[in-house]
Amino acid sequence: MALATFDLAAFEAAHGAARAQAAADLDAICRDSGFLILEGHGVPEAVIDGIWQAAHAFFAQPADQKARVAPPHPGAPYGWIGPLKEALAASKGVETPPDLKESFNGGPLAVPDQVHADALAFCYQPTPFPNLEGFRPAWAAYYTAMEDLAARIMRAFAAALGLPEDRFNVAVKDPISALRALHYPATAAVADADQQRAGAHTDYGTLTILLPQADRGGLQVQQGGDWVDVTAPEGTFVINIGDLMARWTSDAWVSTLHRVVAKPHQPARKSLAFFHQPGWEVEVAPLDGSDTYPPVLSGPYLMGKFQSTGT
Ligand SMILES: O=C(O)CCC(=O)C(=O)O
Ligand SMILES: [Fe+2]
């Protein structure tokens, strides 16, 4: 499926009717598919090359090395989550075999001055970084670039919803976003129909910035009951709406079901997913004042979702 494209730099540079048109186009995409290709993102190539190098070097290590940065206790969110440890479909209440993947996960780079004790015990746990030369600076540079990009997209989202462009500023202050490097090993000769590389799920937060490995397919989005293949041209990101944006917009915007399909004899694939999540205590309630969804607090909501997927 060719996803619709949104040029962020062009939106930011536009004035008057052109800006309103770009915002209306973005609104239509978010109502229709909830997935888009982002151009004009401005993330330097060196930052992207750096994180790819770091991810390749990390996953190439033997399992016992990777295990040194496993989450320090059950339920801790960051570090290396080894193969067959997570089933994303479980977040939708669907029982499947575990996903065919491993991941390295990291949280906010700094702890703000005043944080809730639960936040400190969950999303502000330190990320256990591997002892690989260059890994940590490359990770931090990419994480920072993603935070900045997410804040810019949230301004465009506000415009698309006909709100003041700073409407989500409070949500992007002290965000508790997570960056996840994913590795899906090459698949075997036989695939179990129920087992995917990442089971069908929606993302939990406001928006996800995904960078799939070029020339490796597998990401599929559900459209009209069918699974449709998605690819991203090199130099772009795939952006999708998460559940919090659907809650905020009373389902006017869609948090679309997606998965990474497993088929026999696939080569290994990697991706980088940045999950933007408002600050721990940000309340998300329908912007139209309706009772489509009860209000939730960003942090506890995320924690509940996260805990549903561990095996
Ligand atoms: O690897 C991908 O392309 C998508 C991963 C994904 O959807 C997720 O981790 O939430
Ligand atoms: Fe996802």
From TrEMBL:
Fe2OG dioxygenase domain: residues covered: 174-278
GO biological process: ethylene biosynthetic process
Molecular function terms, GO-annotated: 2-oxoglutarate oxygenase/decarboxylase (ethylene-forming) activity; metal ion binding
Pathway terms, separated by semicolons: Alkene biosynthesis; ethylene biosynthesis via 2-oxoglutarate
EC code: 1.13.12.19, 1.14.20.7
Pfam families on file: 2OG-FeII_Oxy, DIOX_N
Coiled coil: none
InterPro entries found in the cross-reference section: DIOX_N, IPNS-like_FE2OG_OXY, IPNS-like_sf, Iron_ascorbate_oxido_reductase, Oxoglu/Fe-dep_dioxygenase_dom
The protein's enzyme class: oxidoreductase
Keyword set, alphabetical order: Ethylene biosynthesis, Iron, Metal-binding, Oxidoreductase
Known catalytic reactions: 2-oxoglutarate + O2 + 2 H(+) = ethene + 3 CO2 + H2O; L-arginine + 2-oxoglutarate + O2 = guanidine + L-glutamate 5-semialdehyde + succinate + CO2
Entry cofactors: Fe(2+)
Annotated transmembrane regions: none
Similarity field: Belongs to the iron/ascorbate-dependent oxidoreductase family.
Protein name per its UniProtKB record: 2-oxoglutarate-dependent ethylene/succinate-forming enzyme
Species name: Pseudooctadecabacter jejudonensis
